[in-house]
Hints:
The complex is a heterotrimer. Chain A is an alpha+beta fold. Helices cover 34% and strands 16% of the residues of chain A. By secondary structure, chain C is α+β, with helices and mostly antiparallel strands. One FE2/S2 (inorganic) cluster (FES) binds next to loops of chain A.
Amino acid sequence: MIEVSVTVNGRAYEEAVAPRLLLSDFLRHTLGLTGTHVGCEHGVCGSCTVIVDDRSVRSCLMLAAQVDGAEVRTVEGLADGDELHPLQAAFRRNHALQCGFCTPGILMASVDFLERSDSPGRRQIAEMLSGHLCRCTGYEPIVESIHAVALQEGQSP
Amino acid sequence: MKPPVVDYLCPETVAEAVDLLGEHADGAKVLAGGQSLMPLLNMRFAYPTVLIDINRLEETAAIEPGDEVVVIGATVRQGDADQSRTVHAMVPLLAQALPHIGHFVTRNRGTIGGSVVHADPRGEVPLVMVTLGGRATVVSTSGTRTIEADDLFLSHYTTSIADDELLLDTIWPAPGGLWGYAFREFSQRHGDYALGMVACALRREDGVAKQATVAVGAVAGHPVVLDEVGAALVGEPIDERAAAEAGRLAAAAVDPSSDLHASARYRRHLVGLLTESALLAAWADTEREEA
Amino acid sequence: MSWVGKPLERIEDETLLRGRGRFIDDLNPVPGAYHAAVVRSPYAAAHLTSIDASAALASPGVLAVVTGQQVAELTKPFHAVIDTPVAFRAAAVEEVRYAGEPVAVVVARDRYLAEDAAEMVAVEYEPAAPVLTPLDAVAAGAIVSDRSFVYGDPLGKLEEADLVVTESFTFPRWTGTPVEGFGVIADWSAADDALTVWTNFQGPFTLYMAAAAALGLPRSKLRLITPPDSGGSFGIKAAVYTYVVLMGAVSRHLGVPVRWIEDRLEHLAASAASTERVTEVTAGFTNDGKLISLGYDVVEDVGAYLRAPEPATLYRMHGSLSGAYTVQDVSARNRVVLTNRCPTGLNRGFGGPQLYFALEGTMAIAAARLGIDPVDLAHRNLVAAGEFPYTTPTGAIYDSGDYAVCLDDALATVGYAEHRRRQAAARADGRLVGIGIACVVEPSVSNMGYISLAETAQERSGGLPKSGNTEGATISMSPGGGVVVQISTTPQGQGHRTVVSQVVADQLGLEPGDIEVVSVLDTHVNAWSIASGNYSSRFSAMGVAAVQQAAEELTAAIKQIAAHELECAVLDVELRDGKAAVVGQQDAAVSLRRIAGKAHWNPEALPDGVAPGLRFTSFVSAPGLEPAASDDTIASSAVHGFVADVAVVEVDRETGAVTVLDYATTHDAGTLLNPRLVEGQVRGGFAHGAGVALMERLAYDEDGNLITASFMDYLCMTASEVPPLRSSHIETPSPFTALGAKGLGEGNTMSAPVTIANAVRDALGIERLELPLTPSRVWELIEPLS
Ligand code: FES
Ligand code: FES
């Protein structure tokens, strides 16, 4: 077993994990943070995406052991109390989720993407999203939501 | 789809990593970004006994400009290389190829070194490396050596890096002179492995190509430099006719096979098409340099 | 009526956006469940000679290895609609018939350990030669059903035809493959000989009955509970019922709760797929473009076993064989064959994509051969607005519509005339631009009796006739005045809870936020029936009708209590703003809360005829869904929407890449209950249809192994590939449903494949196309032309 101390959504955890335990399983089953979903376990669907030390990553392609000392953000930490994150609010406004299974991963990737890109257009947003599968929405409302937030951010000082 | 039983070691220094590799050479796998290795483990296509995680090495995490070269540490993330001004200014061909690797999120984690060592015949980084004549520095307990790109990629997923060797960095030529570069690939979906890919580098002098390299990926077990295509271009201005002729030569020079996604005929055709388009773009790129 | 028809945001979303959804793998409903991994056949066809589990049993954390033989001892073969020579069981015993078929189950402390041990189970096989395509199956004699239907005199009419189109159309295997796979948690209780199962099943509950029968638990000893959330299904999750049986048997055998969460490789190889269908069409047209005779010769590959509800894919559209057209003389020969591939099942569109690929493809080919614009050809054949309700030759009753207006709307949306002009200009420049259309009748609310058409009238006459489509719902008002609605439509992301809250809010004079809607289906608690579930786009008609009726009963009781209290006539009471009030009087009102309090706390004060408790369950059945008639006509669905699509594509001469430049769709789905959700269904259905048109398919190698075995090779569309879509609506309410609504989630999955194919036909001047239209395939078509 490997000792892991990690901060997830601002909360510190110390856990002993098997070397091969995937980060996705660690978050979901060891910590009970089931908002992070698992749809393929080979890095294509994107539903397991979380933010580790300010970079969005596939949690199915990392080991829990690798986040020792790291700061992890998951969808559960996105809203500020009662207030949804602007992306969450935009997704609701635009009907950018149906079953909601793909949504947490897309939200986390988009948070990172918007933090690190300069007023992206629809095409760049669609390219970023090409790392995520959604079988329900046909994507357009998702692109629209991220674009709307990008525009808002572009306007704020 | 859970990885098989495996040990996990996380060295902090290259020296430590090399020692561990020496110790466990047989069953060890180096874990860098994990974007190729982890799926293999989850699908149980690979059964290493130990993973040596090199993500904490500081010595391999830098992009260093040098004298007509750029040295990219093995654990530099694809996404960081893509954002690097040094890479854009000095290795523009690599900069062109990087956005084609996977997706935003996988590039956050995937490394340049990992792309090299994984040696996927459809990999963008290996293709650029052979096109530019890059080199790899590898280290083991018995010392350090440099491998030329030509000698590096042996066949599908196989390099000449030995089991006990660790890739330290890759060295990317950034020669002076009037160079133009272009990278072209065609895939069914954005971010997919390409059905065909071509990279080329041209040096222009007195209105003609003085040096020309055309290399193709995704048609054989490893990226291939098409020497005869390059040779035929030297001494010529690259106009539409020359590019089309080079495309024909390139298509004739490759021997792809059919698979689920495309027929062999189609892949061959694509090589011609992409070669032609890449050459014209690279030639235009030399003109941009001139201006 | 104030809430229905509004594009309200969804009540589902806040929970899901916060990561607080509760999907099957998020649940731990029983303590100490063991984890299962399934040992699967690597061969598409083989004789299974031995299983040696000793090494696996010695592996750490392993409780047991349960073999197919042991499962067979606790279960029966699944009942099939038609008898077939091969018994279909939850796990193979002696013979395996597809790669991925379960042969044993390893049960261990966690999934990691279970997978370790699964690799150690040594199974010996004697491989045999697999049969892998529909036509090979015909040649091999693997036909399990062969039925011929004749309506009118199609052969006679063919002789009158000026043009006869005979063409073959192959629709590929593909899958809606939801991002969340199957999950089953099974808990056998020896104390009461009963099984409780949590699973993300989507109905129809005919399949729950099939599972119960296979487990030998037909009478209420199988309790099935769905999780609060399900990560998409698109039909596919109907097939989880065979794993309910497998894990149920394993739990029973071992006496422990067992949890199985399917992974992606398992899902693609061994869950379900749509049928591959080869259709030979023979169609007769007059010179002025009238379709006068239509014949189908169909070979339908249902895979390794005829798994219920198959061959439903073939019969779901039977009432609509004539599509949107007035042709009266129709025939069909339907052959169902077995191959050594994963069994097929529900998949969005369910028979529609296959049917329309042939029918609308034929229309496009005929238009080109007759030199008539395809739009004109359609107009000459569409059922006219004045003809509704229209009975098709095969027995469907098309309830309402104005197909011509709908088509013209799509043409106007896309700018058809302008696109034709631009096409001419582009062609003059040597570009390959094409325009395709399709007119699609979208049935919803399936007749539970249609599958019996797979049997002859004589065979059918022996059994219990089946008909209708029934749904139930329960509404209750708590002592505090809270309203809770329980539905049995097992939503998988469609927003049923939101729509129900709108419908009930209107009834009770409340706001949607006041209504709690519970979509968890517990077979021992909910009001459900055999047709319950989430398929054949039945929610907006049947789910809503059941809720509406239950809400009406609650309303009636509230009004009676209020009238008693306010000393007025029941007819003078109206429900508004959380109160029961006397019509036209400001002050004479009593709060619903007070009424609820009375019903629960003070039943002695209730007026005569009002029962205490305020809880109402209603069942409704769709009208007009008679059993199949002796002349083989069937009203296969209760309501019929219409979809007209236009696609404009450009084919890159060099790469063969097909780019959809413009795409317009116009739906007539009757009354729209929530336009926001409607748009979501349209876009989602379109993405699936465009996917199979351009890139999605399940492909197998010559040994029968799936080669599109992961998401690396099974190409789902992403945001960068989904074509642009413009959608609009006309509304001709259905006279057959509670609020005039029709289903609409499948229409574009039926229409988009053929619309895009027709546009490519037009671009290339080629008649025969194979889906998906990948760049390599399309280039192979154009290369000989240039
Ligand atoms: S579960 Fe990680 S990418 Fe699909
Ligand atoms: S909302 Fe269901 S997969 Fe995206």
